[in-house]
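Researcher: Let's run the pair from yesterday's discussion. Sequence first, then tokens, for each.
Model: Starting with the first of the pair.
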Amino acid sequence: MRAPLADFRLEKWYFDCVSSDGAVFIGYAARLKWGPVRLSYGATITKSKDGRLSQRQSPSCGRLSGGRESITWCNDGLKASGEWTGGEPIARTIVVDEPSGRIEWQCLSANAAVDVRTDGRAMTGTGYVEKLSMTIPPWKLPFTELRWGRFISDDRNDYLVWIDLRGRTQRNWIWVNSGEALAGTVDGDGVRTDGAELVFESSQPVRAENIARTLLGRLEFLKRLLPESLWAVREDKRVSSCSLRTEGSESRGSSINEVVRWRRAGA
């Protein structure tokens, strides 16, 4: 028997880094409270410059610390640690607010300088950190598709972050070098808003799989706690070389962007 939905709370941190040679590091740290259930979770995805992909999971979220100047994350079980220095924050945004619960999102660093060590190998580049707090269970979300991403210019002077929801709830937010959200459009070619256009010029897949299988890995037994409709959530995550045009100027850099689709019961 599942715990009452009112007792559901998930906190999830996301970290990433893209190096100048195209290598990618992505880290996740999460804490779940659901009635009497208490779980912690950590995971990493690494993609080397030659395209080799590695994924690891841990029943620990690791150690997080930091403030305005830098954010650090270390997970011994994943043999991963990193520091995200500088970068601009974006204020907390209420993405969903319904009787069944809410989602609060906050970008902690939109355009950081990053030093990461994973499995004994060092990596430096540009990166991003965000935190998500949810009291609405993922199988009760009022949308069936999420398009999300972030762009950082090679010199870290420019950034763009977007969230695009589709389904019963349709909303989007786009931040361009500012904490003020703008409206615009998001598709497979890029992101556009008044005064700015981000173009995906070339993309490489990072992961295109069922989330329950790839993120849980050897912890897949945990999916028994979740409704069957959540098992088939599919994520298409990519790293892209991009150009950002804003009011007559242009910068180049990289983005990590994804499309996540939820299968509803009976679908």
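Model: Moving on to the second of the pair.
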Amino acid sequence: MAYDFPISSSQLSNLNTVTLSLTNTQIKALNVTAVTVVAAQGAGIVIVPVQATMKMIYGGTNAFTGTPTMFIQYGTGVGTNGIFQVSSAGFWTATQNAYIIPFNTGSSLQMNASAVENVAVMVAASSGISGNAAANNTAEIQIMYYTIAI
């Protein structure tokens, strides 16, 4: 049985935000190599993402191709231990700047401690992203999170 707990005022006062720029090369490899957004925080500590937003920055030449599901996840196994996920239909193929606001599952997660304690939060894709021969499209991802040790 999973339980939903409200965010306490102490957790809100410890809310962190991290923004990461993704290169064109990193984007095209997200289905093979997940990229660390928040580094593991140490033994017994869990990163609790509250919200994630992604911006595709169109370089002005040509679009990417591919519409994978995008994952914010614990650890490196692409698509495993997912925290947030969203279908990206139209996001990568846009010929203008585009946003995913916000990533959201709308449900609780129940995972073994080894899947979440002292584990990084990563971004990954379910399938390949290609195209953009000019290699001038990039992205930024921002995650708000707090940490707990329980």
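Researcher: Give me one sentence on the second I can quote.
Model: The CA atoms of residues 59 and 137 lie 5 Å apart.
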